[in-house]
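Hi everyone, sorry if this is the wrong subforum. Our group has a chain we'd like a structural model of before ordering constructs, and none of us has done structure prediction before. Sequence below.
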Amino acid sequence: MRLMVGGNLDPNELEALLDYELETHHKEAHEPAHAVQGVADALPGFGIVAAVLGIVNTMAAVADSTSAELGAKVGAALVGTLSWHPRLLASSSPTASSAPSPRP
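Answer:
Right subforum, don't worry. Here is the predicted structure as tokens:
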């Protein structure tokens, strides 16, 4: 407003400037949400890597392990897989009461 009152800015230019400022503010306000979404999109990939590593570890121990030890290793691979699932992460967090519950 000071620019318009001072006579240095046309009202149409002021409107364009304010529109630009609003767009910039809107984009900046959404940056954190986009960053979190990017991380959430990558989490299933980490679960797949955890599953593959767990199974490779299990297969490496097949010859020298008992069935109970192999079961524990397969269980660890399953936990590694599921622990990266976004809904399961939300349900195990300290703020789980505010997270949506998984659908059946």
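For your construct planning: The mean pLDDT is 77. The CA atoms of residues 4 and 14 lie 7 Å apart.
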